[in-house]
Write a structure and sequence with these properties.
The protein has 9 helices and 3 strands, in the order αβαααββααααα. With 190 residues, the protein is mainly alpha-helical. The protein folds into 2 domains: 94 residues, Arc Repressor Mutant, subunit A; 77 residues. This is PadR family transcriptional regulator.
Length: 190
């Protein structure tokens, strides 16, 4: 889960250019990311601190104070953070984990169409390999252990088949030109 949170936090800051913690929280909340990941407000602030301590972001204290009290920290993504974002994004787009994949889809427009096609093809192949493996598992009508339960295996086959079909649909939409890709942010650096 942590890499999905890191991806969401870095992506939010990159989209804005400079952002404070509450704006990152507002972005992620407005995207309803809590419905398709396990992201929580506390994990967002923890990720902001961790990313800063790892040199992925840098912060300055804002001169503009919109409310009484301490000044806000404003974050920008460093070069190291941009590299981390790209690695997390690429990893998420090939992941068979639904939450990771969902976070990747949220930022897929930050890559080129060709990169997205290649990553989705890679995910599709991994899912097809998983389907074949699952279908080959031994099953027993009265299973001697849970791994041989036909209902359990059936759940996983159905889940992975659905993921493969979803990946195929997204890939077809990308290939049909349905989405615009704005990869200018990273093109010169790859």
């Amino acid at each position: 889960m942590m890499s999905a949170v890191r991806l969401l936090v870095l992506g939010s800051i990159l989209r804005r250019g400079t952002s404070h913690g509450y704006a990152v929280l507002s972005d992620i909340t407005s995207w309803h990311a809590d419905t398709w990941t396990n992201v929580k407000p506390g994990s967002i602030y923890h990720a902001l601190d961790k990313l800063e301590s790892e040199g992925m972001t840098s912060s300055v204290t804002s001169d503009v104070n919109v409310k009484p009290g301490p000044s806000r920290k404003e974050y920008t993504v460093t070069k190291k953070g941009e590299i981390e974002f790209m690695a997390l994004l690429e990893s998420a787009l090939v992941s068979v984990d639904l939450q990771q994949f969902s976070a990747g889809i949220a930022f897929m427009n930050m890559l080129s169409r060709q990169q997205i096609e290649a990553l989705l093809q890679k995910r599709r192949i991994a899912l097809e390999t998983s389907i074949q493996f699952l279908r080959g598992l031994p099953m027993e009508e009265l299973p001697s252990d849970p791994s041989k339960n036909p209902e359990l295996v059936g759940i996983w086959v159905s889940y992975v088949e659905n993921e493969a079909a979803t990946t195929e649909r997204i890939l077809a939409n990308v290939q049909a030109g349905k989405y615009e890709f704005n990869s200018k942010m990273m093109e010169g650096e790859r």
